[in-house]
Amino acid sequence: MRLRRIPDALERIQSQNLLVKPPLTIDDSWIIEIGMGKGKMITKLAFANSHNNFLGVEKFPSAAVKSLKYVKYYNLTNFFILISDAKDLLSSIRGKTNQIWLTFPDPWPKKKHQKRRLTYKSFLSIYANLLNKNGVLKLKTDSFKFFEFSVASLLENGWKIIFRTNDLLNSSVGDQNVMTTYEEKWVNLNYKIHYLEAIFN
């Protein structure tokens, strides 16, 4: 579905003091979601984990602005937004985090576009530099082909997969899952959600 442009989206985010400007300094108390979309998952996690800070990275302000309703509902003070392309993260963020989420990234199914996939080796290098030595990369997707590409890419580029499932909701961690808006839609249509956790060796 095409994203409807909201002309004042950036100004609305700024008015709520949620927008952070690079370079942002973080530590292991921060949890990052890359491509947060409307922010339903990350804001719910922020509400449940008040001792952590949460950073939603989103390229499009018109998507990120949708998170404001959740911020208001949960009365959050530990959630922030960075408007950035994933490829620019190393120049936008300083420090190390303990957890990075990739939630339903564009699978870019055509082979000629594989360098744009967020689990291509150039992006994995960025995550490796942002995570501390115990840091975990978590991926959720509804695309089996993208998931298989991601598994292969991780293994080829020095990562160790510590958990993997092709049916997240019925897995051993399913009861801990917090859904995105996109995820809810596909789960209701009986789609399986593929999920993994990986660490950089």
Automatic annotation (TrEMBL):
A Pfam family that the UniProt record links to this protein: Methyltransf_4
Sites where the protein binds substrate: K110, D142, T180, T181, Y182, E183
Broad enzyme group: transferase
Keywords: Methyltransferase, S-adenosyl-L-methionine, Transferase, tRNA processing
GO MF, any single term: tRNA (guanine(46)-N7)-methyltransferase activity
One annotated Gene Ontology cellular component of this protein: tRNA methyltransferase complex
Family statement: Belongs to the class I-like SAM-binding methyltransferase superfamily. TrmB family.
Organism: Mesomycoplasma flocculare (Mycoplasma flocculare)
PROSITE patterns (alphabetical): SAM_MT_TRMB
Documented EC number(s): 2.1.1.33
Gene from which the chain derives: trmB
Name of this chain's protein: tRNA (guanine-N(7)-)-methyltransferase
Secretion signal, residue range per the UniProt entry: none
Binding positions for S-adenosyl-L-methionine per the UniProt entry: E33, E58, D85, D106
Function summary: Catalyzes the formation of N(7)-methylguanine at position 46 (m7G46) in tRNA.
Pathway: tRNA modification; N(7)-methylguanine-tRNA biosynthesis
Reactions mediated catalytically: guanosine(46) in tRNA + S-adenosyl-L-methionine = N(7)-methylguanosine(46) in tRNA + S-adenosyl-L-homocysteine
